[in-house]
Structure formats: C-alpha cells, structure tokens
Write a structure and sequence with these properties.
The chain has helices at residues 22-28, 32-41, 43-53, 56-63, 67-74, 78-83, 93-100, 111-128, 155-174, 177-186, 191-203, 216-242, 246-291, 306-309, 350-380, 386-396, 405-427, 435-479, 485-494, 497-517, 525-555, 567-604, 615-631, 639-661, 674-699, 718-730, 736-745, 748-803, 809-827; strands spanning 328-329, 348-349. The chain has 828 residues and is an all-alpha fold. The two termini are 39 Å apart.
Length: 828
C-alpha cells in the first residue's frame, strides 16, 4: 500500500477572477485546532496501516533525515536550529500531510490536481458552452498546497499526470479562442507551463475558427471593443504625458533616490501654488485695472537698474500697490479721479475687489495647504515595514505595459535605487553605545547647536543694525538737495545693499552649518538632513522677522521721514529686490558650489568624487522665496509672475547641475516623510507668518493718503465696512449686513474662532491617523503571535506523533547506521 496522499476532488467549478473572496476564505480556512484533533484521532489507525506496509526506507524516512529531507536537514546551520523550532528535525509523513493542507500554505498546489480539475471543467465547457466557474464552488481539497512535492512522485502518477495534460490540451483545442485565453489565464500554474499548454493547443491539428465562420455581429463587437481599449489606453497615456516634468522626475529618482526627488516635487508644488495666485490676481485685479488705467502725473525716469531694483519705470505700473485706483471702475466716465457720475452698468469697485481678492487668495491657499498636509500625513505616516515594502518592490513593482527602451531604462534605475534604499533601511541597526559615549555625543551635539544658534543670532543682529543704518542713510539722502543723475543712480544702487547682505548670509551660513555638522557624526542620513533643515529654518525665520520689523515698524510708521509718498509700493519694491537677489545668489551657489567644485575636485585633487546635493539648503531656499512671494501679494500683485519665472529657471538649472555635477549619496536612505515635512514647514512657519504680517498690515497700519485703493481710510479693513454701509444706505433691507460685519468680521474673535476650528480639525485628523497606526501595530503584532502559535502547534503535533509511534527494531538499526555514517562524515 502506497503512502497516503492528499486527495483533490474533481467535482468543483473553477474561479471566475483568480482572486479569492474573504467569504470563501472563511469557509475554506478551518480551525487549526480541528486539524490537530483529526490527526490525533486518526493517528492510531494510520500508524497501524503504515507499520504493516512500509519498508525500512519509509520507516527511516519518517524518523531520520533521508532522501530529499536528508539534504535539507543536513544543510541547516546550528544557529537556525536554535532560533527556529521548525527546522530542528525533519517531519514525518503524517505531519507533512497536515502541513500541506494548512490554510496558510495554500499558495500552490499539485500540478496533477490542477490538470485534472481543468480537464473536467473543459469537458463541461465543450459540452455546455458556458463560462468559467467561480472559485466559490471549489472544495478545500482541490486548493493549492505548497508542500505538494511529496505527492504523486512515482512513475505511475507521473504518466497519469501526462495523460491528464494531453487530455487537457485536447479540450483546450476544442474551445473557442476567447474561452481558451480566459481558461489559460485562470489556471494557477507558472507562466512557462501556461505558455507550453497554449503552444501545445496551437500546434495540434484540430478545429480552428476562421474569420469567415465568426458572425458579422461578433466581428463588429470585437472590433469595437478593441478600438475602445486602444482609445482608452491612448487617453491614459496622454493624461500621463500632461503631468509636468514627469520624465525628468523619474530620471532624478532613478539616479539620486527619493531624498533628492522630494526637493523637485516640492518645487513643482510651489509652482502650482504660484500659478493659482497669478491667475486669481490677474483675473480680478490686474486685468480690470489695466483696462481702466489711472492718469499719471509724470513720466518715470530710466536709470538702467530697473530690472534689479524694481523702481523707476516699474514704479508706476500695475505691478505695485500704488498704481491701483480707489474708486469704482465703470464703462464710461468723465475723466475725474473721484467722480460719482458714472454709468451704473459694468461697475467694478476696485478697493473692495483688492481687499477681497487678497483675502480670498490667502484663504483658499490656507485650505489647500491644510488639505495637502492632512492628506500627506495620512499617506506618509502609515506603518509600512521595510521588509514588507522590500518584498512588494521586488515582486510587484515592474510595469509590464512599458515597452519603450528609454522608459524601461528609467523604470529599471528607479526600482534599483528604491531597492537600495529599502535594503539599507532593513540592514540599518541602532548601535548600542555606552554611557560615556552617549555623554560625549551629547556634549558634541550641544556644542554644535550652541555654535549654530549663536551664529544665527549674531547674523540676525547684524542685519538689524545694518537695516537701521540703511534707513538712516536713506533719510540723509532725502534731506540732501542733490537731484543730479549720478546721485539718483547711487540712491537706486544703495537700495540693493540690504538684499545683497541678507542673500550673502543665506549663502554662506548654511555651508558653515554643514561644517559644524561634520563633528556630530550622525549615523542616519535622514536625521542629518532633518537637523540641517531645522538650523537653516532657524536662520531664515530670524532674518525674515528682522526684515518684517524693518518694513512694518520703521518704513510704514514713518514714511515721510524717508520721503515716501506711497510706502506700500516701496515695500513691494523691497520684496521684489529680495526675491531677485535670492535667485541670483542661488545661481551663484549652483555655479561655484557644484560646477567649479566638481572641476576642482577632478582636475586639481585628481579625485572622481563629486559634491552631494544639499537637500536642506535648497529646500529652505524655496521656502524662503515662497514666504517673500506671499508677503508681497498685498504690495506687489504681480510678484507671483516673478516667482513662477524664478521656479521655472530654478528647476532646469538645478536638474542640469544635478545630472552633471553631483553624485548620489554614499549611504542610500529612503525619504518616506520628506514631502510631508516640507509641506508642514511651508504651512506653519512660512504661510502662517506671511498671513499674520498681511493681516496686521490690513487691520492696524494706516495706508498711504495719496496712492493705492485704500487712500483716505484709517485702515485697509475699513473698505469692507464702507461698502456694507453703502449697501445698507441704498437698500434698507440689507441693514443686517452692517451688524454682521461689525460683530463677525471686525471682531477679532471670529478670526480666532476660524483659526481654532482649523487647528481642531488638524488635531483630530492627527489623532485619527495616530490611532490607525496603533491599530495596525497591534494587528501586525497579532499576526506575528499567530505565526509563533502555528510553530508551537506543529511542534506539538510532531511530538504526539513520535510518542504514539510503536517501537521498531528495524528503525533503531537504521538509525544506528545513519548515525554511524554521519559520524564518519564529520570525521572526514
């Protein structure tokens, strides 16, 4: 009597989609305890049959590692035997049967059983011409088993399997082409075996369907389906090609990893923000004012520095605050500046439009930022084990729809660098250090932070003193009666001193921070980048704080002391100069810090090493420039145009320099939360600070009396109140708007309430995400515990099997012979 094999029933239907449903899994995956009880109950009867029929080879195989099991057990190292209880010994035939029918091991199954199932099913399809069956009707015994290598290995079973294969090929040949393709697609065999079945079915002479035998309606239906699929795939490809810089980003990711990629993705995000602001401001402010331009008193002078200073010719243009009118634009007016006898139709209240456009731009930007930040939090703070991601990346990352050589090369490089990052994260181990080493590292880090904070405070104080000196120098130049062309040109050039000084500090001090960071010796590259980002952020915030005090605390409060009739336009020109100088110094840093350093390293030092892309410095430069752009919305409505042009040039310049002058980091690391971190920094220090400064200006500071849409008002905020009062005066039914504006808009409590609601929403969302993370951690821990339980139960099953097995002298004799041969082998 041969060894009992796992039986596969052939009376079930097959799957419809190839993916099993949870209901079917609940019905199929029986309790493991029930398997233990069934095996223990049938163990006595099974052993009696095995003892009467098995020879010495079979008995020896159950107790000692022989045949295939001998090789596997002999090659198990001692460490594995100590760590994994499942490799302590080779299992008996009865235990292997239970292992082969375990629900967790139903991944593959006996090839003969598969062929038998599909032979029966194709017979039914040939007779009844019906579609494929669903997997719900499959019985448990016909499901796959990863331990089926011990089943059907003798010659008779092999011949029977080949016969089943031949009959399956004959049945597949008799099916229609569509049914044959669907059936082959659903068979749970390897691609090689499926290809062999398909080729065998095509080689054999048999019934073939010619195009003339297919009905005309069916042909038309197939042509329509194929055309629709081609058009759909073409449309998806077209939509994918519309994504900005998609190919360039893939090339960057494939060569330099996700850390450098996060910088360019962040740059693209900022570009979209500025394009949105540009469209809003041009549609509601720039275009209406350009259609009805105000009358200018004098023509501006040209000094040749207008592109750098933003003054001169650009001072009296739609670029700055002072150009916009303070009256309602109508279709036909008499020409007076403050007239009231204009036509009623096509009127446009410019002060009200200016106020609400700036407010709406900030509000919508806030909504988009909060939504992007919450969505990014939910995506990046998931519990993704590196080992699980590594397995998914190895087996599921390739896109088989890619056919172009360039796309295949990009995808290969991208997957390669991601695998390197995941492997580095899996292999990274925390080094356990002693107390003395930790105290030494803490002392060095404390010294480094003290140096960085001290240098930042010193630079901020230096800018404060220098801005005060430049303010006094401007007052002295205003008092002087010299109005020659040379003096005016020197006055225009002196306006560039403060932007150049600030940009120089932003260029040099991050390099000093990197030098200080060398003595800290952080093990993780991501930790080193986060520390550098915080230090650069501290520098940018301190400098912007000093500059905001200079503009809103000195220039705005005493504009006449420096001879300014429109201080808002002067602040707008300052912001333009700072944004332009930031771009110029960033270009210089790219040229000297990357290009010339590469040439110096390769030709002078004779080294092939190239500089590494500084993520922290470049990201904070983007945040610094975007903060200036947001601050300038009120004073320079066309400043987003400059920011968009700057970002476009910056992308191509950085990408070219990266590809030619930089190298990938020596230690690969995965930037799983970099984008979320960048958006968070963009939202809270950058956007929040800009919104506070703009709100303070509109609510508190008195606007200029001779320029701009808010001239003649105590605050810019009164434009809304004046409009509400006019509506209530014209229409008595709208008097409630005055009450609503007084208690809901003018009252700061409404603003604090809205900000509190936003913070509560963000807090609750973060709590929900944190709760989901904890649940996922508990579920993963439960899965690990269930795996340990399976190991324990299998070990107990083997122990019960060995205890209930009768004593056999032949087994002892075989065991002694095997032990003697092993001893000789170890002696050799």
């Amino acid at each position: 009597m041969a060894a009992r094999s796992v039986s596969f029933d052939a009376d079930a239907h097959f799957m419809e989609t190839g993916v099993e449903s949870p209901l079917d899994e609940d019905r199929v995956h029986d309790s493991f305890t029930q398997l233990i009880h069934e095996q223990s109950r049938d163990l006595s009867h099974t052993e009696t049959m095995e003892m009467n029929s098995f020879d010495l080879e079979e008995e020896t195989r159950d107790d000692f590692p022989s045949l295939s099991c001998a090789d596997s057990c002999a090659g198990v190292p001692e460490e594995a035997e100590l760590t994994d209880p499942l490799v302590e010994t080779c299992w008996s035939t009865a235990t292997l049967r239970v292992l082969s029918s375990m629900p967790s091991r139903t991944i593959g199954r006996s090839r003969g059983a598969i062929l038998s199932q599909y032979y029966n099913r194709t017979m039914q399809m040939c007779r009844r011409r019906q579609s494929r069956p669903s997997i719900r009707s499959f019985s448990r015994s016909a499901r796959p088993s990863i331990c089926g290598y011990r089943v059907e290995t003798d010659a008779a079973n092999f011949d029977r399997e080949e016969n089943k294969r031949e009959r399956l090929v004959n049945n597949l040949q008799n099916l229609s082409e569509n049914d044959r393709v669907r059936m082959l697609r659903a068979i749970p065999l390897s691609l090689h075996e499926k290809r062999e079945l398909r080729l065998s079915a095509l080689r054999k002479p048999g019934r073939s369907f010619s195009r003339n035998e297919i009905p005309c309606c069916s042909q038309l239906k197939y042509y329509i389906i194929i055309a629709f699929r081609h058009s759909w795939y073409s449309w998806l490809s077209f939509l994918s090609s519309l994504q900005l810089w998609q190919t360039a980003l893939k090339r960057v990711s494939g060569r330099f990893g996700t850390g450098v990629l996060s910088y360019f993705v962040f740059l693209r995000t900022l570009l979209f923000f500025n394009v949105f602001l540009l469209l809003v401001l041009c549609l509601f402010l720039v275009v209406p004012q350009a259609v009805r331009p105000p009358s200018l008193s004098a023509s501006p002078h040209l000094y040749g520095l207008e592109l750098l200073t933003g003054a001169g010719y650009f001072a009296d243009s739609v670029m700055y605050y002072g150009y916009y009118s303070n009256y309602t634009l109508t279709k036909a007016c008499n020409g007076a500046r403050n007239q009231t006898s204009c036509g009623f139709h096509l009127s446009y209240n410019m002060p009200l439009a200016y106020f609400f456009t700036i407010g709406a731009a900030f509000f919508i930007t806030c909504i988009i930022l909060v939504y992007s930040m919450s969505k990014s939090f939910g995506q990046s703070f998931r519990i993704d084990r590196s080992k699980g991601l590594l397995a998914m990346k190895v087996f599921c990352s390739w896109d088989f729809k890619v056919t172009k050589k360039s796309s295949v090369r990009l995808q290969r490089e991208n997957i390669s660098i991601q695998l390197k990052e995941l492997v580095a994260e899996v292999n990274r181990k925390e080094v356990k250090s002693s107390l003395l080493q930790r105290l030494s590292a803490f002392s060095i880090q404390l010294l480094a932070w003290t140096i960085c904070v001290g240098s930042t405070a010193g630079c901020a104080y230096a800018i404060y003193c220098f801005s005060e000196y430049m303010h006094k120098d401007l007052q002295i130049r205003v008092r002087s009666s010299s109005n020659t062309k040379e003096s005016l040109l020197l006055k225009e050039a002196s306006l560039l001193a403060l932007p150049v000084a600030v940009s120089s500090i932003n260029l040099l001090l991050p390099g000093f921070f990197n030098t200080v960071a060398w003595m800290e010796e952080y093990d993780s590259p991501s930790k080193r980048n986060y520390v550098a980002i915080f230090r650069n952020l501290m520098l940018k915030v301190s400098l912007l704080g000093v500059l905001c005090y200079h503009w809103l605390g000195r220039v705005a409060l005493e504009p006449k002391s420096v001879g300014l009739e429109c201080w808002e336009s002067f602040v707008g020109q300052e912001l333009y100069r700072f944004l332009l100088m930031d771009f110029i110094f960033t270009s210089l840093d790219t040229f000297f810090g990357e290009f010339l350093w590469r040439l110096f390293s390769q030709r002078v030092l004779k080294k092939e090493r190239k500089p590494v892309f500084d993520i922290a410095r470049n990201v904070l430069e983007l945040i610094y420039g975007q903060t200036i752009a947001w601050l300038g919305l009120l004073f320079t409505p066309l400043l987003p145009v400059v920011q968009v042009i700057k970002l476009l040039f910056l992308f191509y310049m950085k990408k070219t320099s990266l590809m030619r002058n930089c190298q990938a980091p020596r230690k690969p690391w995965r930037a799983s939360q970099m984008t979320t971190f960048f958006i968070t920094l963009l939202c809270f220090p950058s956007f929040l600070g800009a919104a506070v400064c703009v709100t303070y200006t509109m609510w508190t500071i008195k606007p200029s009396a001779s320029c701009g849409p808010f001239q003649g008002l105590n605050t810019m905020f009164q434009a809304g109140k004046k409009w509400v009062e006019q509506l209530a005066k014209d229409n008595p039914r709208l008097t409630w708007l005055t009450w609503a504006h007084t208690y809901l808009v003018e009252n700061p409590f409404f603003l604090f309430l809205a900000a509190g609601i936003f913070l509560i929403v963000i807090y609750f969302h973060s709590q929900v995400v944190d709760g989901q993370r904890k649940i996922i951690e508990l579920l993963q821990e439960q899965i690990e515990n269930e795996g340990e339980d399976k190991k324990f139960l299998i070990t107990r099953l083997q122990t019960i099997h060995e205890q209930k097995r009768p004593f056999s002298p032949r087994r002892v004799r075989g065991a002694s012979q095997l032990g003697l041969s092993r001893g000789n082998m170890w002696t050799i």
